[in-house]
Amino acid sequence: MKKNVLIIGFGDIAKRISHIIKDNEYELYSISRGNQKSDIKNHIKWDWLSKEIPKLNITEYDSIIFIPKPSSFDEDGYKKGFINSSENVFRLTSELSYKKIYNHLINKSLRK
Q1: pLDDT tens digits, residue range 12-29?
Q2: DSSP symbols for 10-79
Q3: If residue 100 lies in a helix (H) or strand (E), which one and from where to where?
């Protein structure tokens, strides 16, 4: 059975992660804040700076990877991008079942 992995913040880092993860072992799900194009079939757009929580078809994950980034490069943009987005993402994850959650400072890859 494949392991479900949710990547929140699907940008350049997440694209690289998705290319090294073995397709036959993992089912990838991704969420991006912008209009990122994704090769992942299970991709949705969600602005995690909003107060709305998306409805996900799958609620059980082996791993969740959260890669925040500033909404702009001033103090307010960093606050929104890291603190406010984290609060909303953690509200989302409180409705999910998962074994591990990683932040943007991943020190291990999901490769075997």
Answers
A1: 888 888 888 877 899 999
A2: -SHHHHHHHHHS-TTTEEEEEEESS----S-SEEEE--TTSS--PPPS--EEEEEEE----SSSSHHHHI
A3: strand 97-102
Q: Phi/psi zone of residue 9: left (φ > 0), alpha (ψ -120 to 50 degrees), beta? A: left
- pTM metric for this prediction: 0.84
Q: What are the residues whose beta carbons fall under 8 Å from the beta carbon of 31, sequence distance 6 or more?
A: 6, 7, 8, 9, 10, 43, 44, 45, 46, 48, 54
What is the CATH topology of the domain spanning 3-102? Answer: Rossmann fold (3.40.50)
